[in-house]
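Weekly structure sync, notes
Attendees: PL (lead), two postdocs, one rotation student
Agenda item 3: pending single-chain targets
PL asked that the sequence for the first pending target be pasted directly into the notes so everyone works from the same version. It is reproduced below exactly as submitted, 204 residues in total.
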Amino acid sequence: GDDIDTLLKNADIAMYQAKESGRNQFRFFTEHMHTSLIERHKLEQDIQSALHLKQFALVYQPKVDVISHKLTGMEALIRWNCPDRGLVRPAEFIRTAENSGYIVPLGYWIIGDVCRALKKWQADSLKLVPVSINVSVKQFQQPDFAIRVEEILKVHELDPALIEFEMTEGLLMEDTAATQRCLEQLKDIGIRIAIDDFGTGNSC
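Predicted structure, written out during the meeting:
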């Protein structure tokens, strides 16, 4: 940089990159960092717009018993067909949604949309099976998470046993006292809990 403002701005960008890499590190500023930051901000804005314009959609992956060949459950998977970007894979936007905090309203929308789908299938006289939903760390850490979930279920008049939350081992290891309280609240509601990516973290 040729002036103080530019130097400070670039130093901030490098510091942000160091923090994202786990802190206690240093990074030298590069133009690529600046480009990445601009792209991330644009993606954050697009996620915000997608939430407002209801551009997200859910697809359902079946879980089938290999012996009986019967449907035993489903997993809700999010899809984003952006007008400008085309079909955006979850791997390309979920982390940005996490870092920006947009994962929280997105997560509540997912729970509500799963409830709406289950009620429609029920009205169509289809056999209902539990639907798994991935829960992010940021969403789980909301102090009113269990209360919000219960409210959504009551609005849709849905049996809580039809909802299963998938959580990673890492999530369950963070702030264990608060985690235990939240799990107990979800258990009292009747929500099913599953461990996602089991065997890759502490259990390994």
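Discussion points:
- Strands lie at 56-64, 71-82, 86-88, 131-134, 163-168, 192-196.
- The mean pLDDT is 89.
Action: rotation student to compare against the earlier draft before next sync.
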